[in-house]
Design brief:
alpha/beta, Rossmann fold, 5-stranded parallel sheet, 4-stranded parallel sheet, 14 strands, about 40% helix, about 15% strand, Branched-chain amino acid transport system substrate-binding protein, Leu_Ile_Val-bd, amino-acid transport, transport, BCAA_transport
Length: about 375
């Protein structure tokens, strides 16, 4: 029986990833470690499901040049020590030729140490800039960096003549990194941070910090670098305090889950940089990402009966990048690394990727969309 080819699978065929001519025989071993459970499950659960779905699609359609993908997938629960252990197991016991994963910055950095030592190509799904700056030979990533998120937010603030801001940042790896990156480039965009507060990963009330920010003379907007439940609490607390200032969040909470957790009323008007995936239904027909994001959204939501998220999109893009490289390089780790670095013009849900020896992210600010929450959903900011 001839396999049914979705638009997503058509993309893989066009890339030369899927071979429909003959049944798959040999296997290409692909490893993954994501945070499918634990505090970062909102990241890792859709990532794990996406990878499993795409492996199933590719194998049912004939594999990569006639070779099936054998997936070794581990749940590190957001624990960097477990991530390092699983990365070592993937290389030494499972003998994978490539790894996808690292839902968080912390778990990613643990996997990096193994990938670099063992010379295994690794595509991270986390946001911090230090993952790919400085460039490491075997490390790539799919999400925009936190530094890029700061730049996108500050550009929007400047356009709205919001130049004096208060920051309230999570002390987790992502929040602390983005806080530092925003401070580093604020002046370049004409932004002055005149209030600066933080909160811990387990904090359940940020009203003291928000009160200090709101009472700081001259503050015009609030920026919250962070991910997980913290930004939702900040959003709810701000509404409860009646603080009438624009609120910006990071791409670390770009999902419907954030709106649900924060509440539609409290999150109304919140702005953040996000991907085309969150506004797939309103993308114009001429948008170069429309086919990719709508096909992924349709496949994921049809299979799992849950809303698609930006984070699953990161895994989708990592899989497309890795399997495209495998189609050119076979199952040799070094050749896969070289093929990844040669990737040019690959359209994903997050943007269009073009890597080089000096750039293992391959995205620019144009891939970010400035989004606003309106009536409990996502819209393009105006």
């Amino acid at each position: 029986m001839k396999p049914v080819i979705t638009t997503a699978m058509t993309t893989l065929v066009a890339l030369g990833v899927i071979s429909l001519a003959a049944p798959a025989s040999a296997e290409i071993r692909l490893g993954a470690s994501v945070s499918a459970t634990g505090p970062a499950a909102f990241l890792g659960d859709p990532e794990a499901k996406t990878i499993e779905m795409l492996v199933e699609q590719v194998n049912e359609a004939g594999g990569i040049n006639g070779e099936k993908i054998e997936l070794f997938l581990y749940d590190d629960g957001g624990d960097p020590n477990k991530a390092r252990t699983f990365a070592t197991r993937l290389v030494e016991d499972d003998e994978v030729v490539a790894i996808i994963g690292g839902s968080t910055t912390g778990t990613t950095m643990s996997i990096i140490s193994v990938a670099e030592d063992e010379e295994i190509p690794f595509i991270s799904l986390a946001g911090a800039i230090q993952i790919i700056d400085p460039v490491r030979d075997y490390v790539f990533k799919t999400p925009h960096t936190d530094r890029m998120a700061c730049a996108k937010i500050f550009t929007d603030m400047a356009a709205r003549e919001l130049t004096k801001i208060g920051m309230i940042s999570g002390t987790d790896g992502f929040g602390a990194s983005m806080q530092a990156q925003c401070h580093d480039i604020a002046a370049e965009h004409g932004i002055e941070v005149i209030a600066d507060e933080t909160y811990g990963p387990q904090d359940a009330d940020m009203t003291p910090q928000l009160t200090k920010i709101s009472k700081t003379e001259g503050v015009q907007a609030i920026l919250n670098p962070g991910f997980g439940q913290g930004p939702a609490i900040v959003t709810r607390n701000k509404a409860q305090l009646g603080i009438n200032l624009p609120l910006y969040q990071s791409h670390g909470v770009a999902s419907d889950g954030f709106i649900k957790l924060a509440g539609a009323e409290a999150s109304e008007g919140v702005r953040l940089p996000g991907t085309a995936l969150l506004i797939a239904d309103i993308l114009p027909d001429g948008d170069p990402q429309k086919d990719v994001v709508t096909s992924y959204k349709s496949a994921f939501e049809g299979k799992y009966e849950q809303k698609v998220s930006t984070f699953g999109g990161y895994a989708n893009d990592a899989f497309l990048l890795m399997t495209s490289a495998m189609a050119k390089a076979g199952s040799d780790a070094e050749a896969i690394r070289n093929a990844l670095e040669d990737t040019s013009g690959l359209v994903g849900t997050t943007g269009t990727y073009s890597f080089s020896a000096n750039d293992h992210l391959g995205l620019d600010l144009s891939a970010f969309r400035m989004l606003e929450i309106r009536d409990g959903g996502w819209a393009l900011a105006e």
